[in-house]
Fold Acetaldehyde dehydrogenase (Acetylating).
Amino acid sequence: MNVDLDLLSMQEMRNAVENAKKAQRKFSKFTQEQVDRVIDAIAETAYKESLHLAELAVKETGLGVIEHKKIKNELGSKGVYESIKDIKTVGMINEDKQQKIVEIAAPFGVVAGIVPVTNPTSTTIFKTLISLKAGNGIVFSPHPSGKKCTVEAAKICMKAAEQAGAPEGLIGWITEPSMEATQALMKHRDVNVILATGGGGLVRAAYSSGKPAYGVGPGNVPVYIEKSAEVKKAVKRIMDSKTFDYGTICASEQSVIADQNVKELAVREFKNQGAYFLNSDEKRKMEKIISPQPGKLNPKIVGKSPVFIAEMAGLEVPADTTLLIAFESEIGKDIPFSIEKLAPIFAFYTVKDSKEALTHADKLLKLGGRGHSLSIHTTDEDVAKAFALEMPVSRVLVNTPSALGAVGGTTGLKPSMTLGCGTFGGNITSDNVTVTHLFNKKRLAYGTKEIVVTNKEQKEDYKTEKNGTNNEQLNMIVNEVLSKVNGSKDLNKETIQALVSQAISKL
């Protein structure tokens, strides 16, 4: 019997949303202690399953490195949990006694969780934790190429949550995702907010759904090696970052910009650490593999090893090659090495100074990375601050691997698998998205000052009344004085003053 998978997917989505809504109504009555018990159970269980889920993800998607995906899963579970566990999300969460304002948390309802193929399991764990900690239910739409591992991650989280007391159906998913079902999920009347991580088209669909949405933009991240940098350490950090999970984190560096003073030293260090520099002929062949169409990344190289990508281009490189690098001087959509490459491939630019580096970085960001991140290696605080002030990005990462620093692994930033790009990149937030973005804050505000309010009619009545009273008093004073002076022979200034004073005192 033939089964219409699109119809099946649509019906599964509707059932999942209906179940999540019912479960969330019950969950919204949970105390903070009950919610935290559920969150703790999910984080603990997902952390224990990190390796298993990493193996599933690499096997199904063919992308990345198992050991690195395990680290992502650990960050998405325990790392995220540690950052949110003490945040109040139920009932009265804050009180300002001086301003006499009480803040009260109220969950959004049902979250639509869109999951990318590059980070399928870690994103699922992360979005589950922050959604449920805020009192919400969540329904996942996986990427078709990572649907099995995404659903398995969701099932692991669901089982742990229900064993800890969460209502059945609080976490849902689409096992056979389609674009139609995903778009219908985002527009469903019972979905209250969208967490969209994926390609540009999907994120735009989230923003045009008519629902509140947290989407993220691409991350064509430049990395600048400034003349004062500790070059050996800088190159090691860049290599660790760019080769991590074969470059599938959107915050991984995409192009090196090096001061001419340290260029030769940087090139030598890259080579010492396994990077292969392409000659001009090899570069031309690689360009066709990176971007068969101007401005479009070849999805077949995403998350693949440098040796595999070299073979695609018909090149022979050493078996221990860690990174493919080409010298570049131009920037544009028709320059393949200058676009975002979610793979272990670099463009290498040389500049005179930090001023020229700013110009290069800005041009690279305009290709698709505005609002995301920029990395810099320097010992000059003024240079770092100048980049932070000038660059249209939400994160400037200093002396740290960009891919791990941006998601909160090696910095004090909030651990997150959804990195906002602000209005620079067309997003509603520039934050690392976390639990505080997923609940409403109601405010109980007491009066602290009095304001006298009068309208125009009241003012006119007041004037009339006041003038009338003054005229009556004046007439009484005059009559009083006249009654005293009539027929008086001893009338002088002093006498009149005394009579007026007497009359006024009586009034």
Observations:
- The first strand starts at residue 91 and ends at 96.
- DSSP finds 17 helices and 15 strands in the chain.
- The chain has three domains: 5-216+436-445, 221-411, 456-506.
- Residues 456-506 form one domain.
